[in-house]
From TrEMBL:
Residues 61-129 form the DUF4283 domain. It comes from Hibiscus sabdariffa. It comes from the Eukaryota. It holds the Pfam family DUF4283. This is DUF4283 domain-containing protein.
Length: 130
């Protein structure tokens, strides 16, 4: 059975402490959803979508090294933000998610930890919230 970890544990340690049998699901290249992995029902006139434990683990893993960022007091474009923020050891993905918020996904735990533990970060004299 998959052991629950605190949010702080996942930020600081990633999935290093998860038993190997639970980590194996993260190594798959092709993800195949089976019947029962996603179920849909109606509860009190509202559509309810439920995901299997396997799908939940995959979702957690995909956001394991991701942060939400926003520049306070100023709008900033994607390219400018990408060029002005951190210089990680490995390339990272930056995604615009509307309302001047962005998702930054890192490939290495060390880059992720640098971003969430160092700072404060500023761009053009404005604080970058992480």
């Amino acid at each position: 059975m998959f052991t629950n970890h605190t949010y702080k544990d996942s930020l600081l340690h990633g999935y290093a402490d998860i038993p190997q049998e639970d980590q194996d699901i993260f190594e798959e290249e092709d993800i195949e959803l089976l019947e029962g992995d996603v179920t849909r029902s109606v509860v009190d006139s509202l559509i309810s979508v439920n995901f299997s434990e396997k799908v939940q683990k995959l979702t957690e893993k995909s956001f394991n090294l991701t942060v939400v960022i926003k520049l306070l007091g100023r709008q900033i474009g994607y390219t400018t933000l990408h060029n002005k923020i951190w210089k990680p050891n490995r390339d990272f993905k930056l995604m615009d998610i509307d309302n001047d918020y962005y998702l930054a996904s890192f490939k290495e735990n060390s880059d992720f930890l640098h971003v969430i533990t160092e700072g404060p970060w500023t761009i053009f004299g404005h604080y970058l919230t992480v």
